[in-house]
Amino acid sequence: MEKDNRLWELIAKKSAGEATAEEIRILDHLMQQYGTDVHYMMNVMDSYWEEMNAAKEGKQAFLYAEALNNRLKQVSASSHKKTKRDYFFYWAAAAMITLCIAIGWLMWNPFHSASSEMNIVMVKDGSRKKVSLPDGSEVWLNGGSRLIYSKGLGHCNAREVTLSGEGYFKIKHNNNCPFIIHTDYLDIKDLGTVFNVKAYPDEKEAIATLISGSIEVSIKDDPGRTIILKPHEKVSYFADIKSLSLDKNNKRVINKEVGAIRPLALRKNRLEVSDIQPVVNMRGDTIVAETAWVNNELVFQGERFGHLAESMQRWYNVSIRIENEQVANYTFTGIFDGETLKQALEELKMIRGFSFEIDKDTVIIK
Q1: Contact of 297 with 279, CB cutoff 8 Å
Q2: CATH at residue 337
Q3: How do residues 124-140 score in pLDDT, each as one tens digit?
Q4: Residue 60's domain spans which residues?
Q5: What sign does the dihedral 111-114-116-121 (CA atoms) show?
């Protein structure tokens, strides 16, 4: 994995015109090992890099970086057969997206100086990591996540981070300097808080769960649409949903156009607020499903197997392919607490019948 990091670091430096002759030689050698995929991605990055450098305003440069983000997502999602190589390519594309958005942020941030430096923390699938931030705040990152923050985070004008994936935050509150988390769909402002944010780039849903304190949540493409959560509430944002309704659990649905709950309102996006529902684990402890992963418990409630498989891929660092559509629509409720991959699959198999094969880091379910 260290070699993978080095590859994408060198691509970024070469595109920026900052690579030394020795670094270019090393890059050429690494690119020969990885093949045409890397060459194609580098060409994509180069074209956007030129536009970013040509931008007269920092904000425009950031928009080019976001455009590159979207383009690389398309590249990484182009393969439907998830081989080990495909998963490396997806992870590597995510690394490159991170570098480019960080560059765009630096060019846009009005407080950025030539001496500013960014920290990028990446956590591979199957792992979890605790990060202590310069301002005294703490973040636990779940597998497949990355966090970008300035080394000057302790200063009032730099208390902003960018999250892709899932993070559990314990923020050192400062009334005069709010802490802001940016994700693809939502921005979350700390108002004195312990909370969880789940915003993986390959999912069309972002969730912020408040444990204590208060947070203000706003939609990225509609900043005027904000909501302040109370303890033990969560807000879910769904992208590309064309209908909006009040469900049987009496969830509050926020709709700016009508200023109230409105069943069947035709909208592209949906924002829901609901109460956290505690669950009891195998030891008899009452836990919060949304934050149980911090204690190495994977909780799923009425979850489609197709979606659960995505969570299991990140949890166990494997590729899972479900070849039967009916099986993909099975729903499961339960908790994995220390089970191996095989044990977890056997437990699911006892609930709903299916067969599976494990070949190294690939699982085929039929």
Answers
A1: no
A2: 3.55.50.30
A3: 889 999 999 998 999 99
A4: 1-108
A5: positive
